[in-house]
């Protein structure tokens, strides 16, 4: 084989490798944009449903697509295409309205036109108290972030969706609010950790439908103690095997 042949083979090999890499990156971009996006839980606002260190897949097509479906949210178009409205009780990822570079995850509580209010820790929707039942206490600090037992209440929304909420304090600032009227094209979001959640009661405000990114579906990995999934040596002590491949309720 001549030097020229070797040079051509080498160039061809580099070109093929580059082509494979580019195709793989494009496929990953399509999957992330149109199908699924991985998301890690950064705070305790959705405890006990979601914990810091949970890694989950968000279904991108659930609510259709907006500019926020694309990386870096380029202003290519406004509104949503192939849109589908979220259901009350969905756990949704959305862009923080005051700063769309930030991702938030909360539960959809109020739909357009709803009236939402908290009275003495009780959720009211359109003037009706949401069913709320104390189901016990949690003493696991990995779930509650507290060193004492925490009361757990089971809420059931008017459409039948049920989930657990934490009650860290009987008289927190979010237990009594004004009545919020959700505007058209917006949603009211709340965290399940009611006394430790920055949500639509506070600085989040009403979330425009354009800011919706997708619906949380399944936890595919979970690790405690602030460990990274790449720290394999911490898996024996910090991995939460009971949370792997759990559906998000």
Automatic annotation (TrEMBL):
EC id: 3.4.21.89
TM annotation in the entry: 20-39
EC top class, as a word: hydrolase
Entries under Pfam families matching the protein: Peptidase_S26
Keyword flag Transmembrane: yes
Subcellular location, record wording: Membrane
Main location: membrane
Organism domain of life: Bacteria
Domain Peptidase S26, chain residue ranges per copy: 16-221
An annotated GO BP: signal peptide processing
Residues forming the catalytic site: 45, 106
InterPro entries named in the record: LexA/Signal_pep-like_sf (IPR036286), Pept_S26A_signal_pept_1 (IPR000223), Pept_S26A_signal_pept_1_CS (IPR019758), Pept_S26A_signal_pept_1_Lys-AS (IPR019757), Peptidase_S26 (IPR019533)
A GO molecular-function annotation: serine-type endopeptidase activity
Membrane association type: Single-pass type II membrane protein
Cellular compartments per GO CC: membrane
Keyword tags: Hydrolase, Membrane, Protease, Transmembrane, Transmembrane helix
Reactions catalysed according to its record: Cleavage of hydrophobic, N-terminal signal or leader sequences from secreted and periplasmic proteins
Family membership noted in the UniProt record: Belongs to the peptidase S26 family.
This protein's name: Signal peptidase I
Species this protein is from: Nitratireductor basaltis
């Amino acid at each position: 084989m001549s030097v020229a042949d070797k040079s051509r083979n080498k160039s061809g090999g580099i070109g093929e490798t580059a082509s494979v890499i580019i195709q793989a990156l494009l496929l990953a971009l399509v999957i992330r944009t149109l199908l699924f996006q991985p998301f890690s839980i950064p705070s305790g606002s959705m405890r006990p449903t979601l914990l810091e260190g949970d890694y989950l897949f968000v279904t991108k097509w659930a609510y259709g697509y907006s500019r926020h479906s694309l990386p870096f949210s380029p202003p290519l178009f406004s509104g949503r295409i192939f849109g589908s409205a979220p259901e009350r009780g969905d756990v949704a990822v959305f862009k923080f309205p005051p700063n769309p570079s930030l991702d938030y995850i909360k539960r959809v509580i109020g739909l357009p036109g709803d009236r939402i209010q908290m009275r003495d820790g009780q959720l009211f929707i359109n003037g009706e108290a949401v069913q709320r039942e104390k189901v016990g206490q949690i003493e696991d600090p990995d779930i509650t972030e507290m060193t004492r037992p925490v009361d757990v209440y089971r809420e059931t929304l008017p459409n039948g969706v049920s989930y657990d909420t934490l009650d860290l304090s009987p008289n927190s600032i979010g237990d009594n609010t004004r009545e919020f009227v959700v505007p058209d094209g917006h949603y009211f979001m709340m965290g399940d950790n009611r006394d430790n959640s920055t949500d639509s009661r506070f600085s989040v405000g009403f979330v425009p439908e354009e800011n919706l990114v997708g619906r949380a579906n399944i936890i595919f990995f979970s690790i405690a103690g602030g460990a990274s999934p790449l720290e394999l040596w911490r898996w024996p002590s910090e991995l939460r095997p009971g949370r792997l491949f759990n559906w998000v309720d």
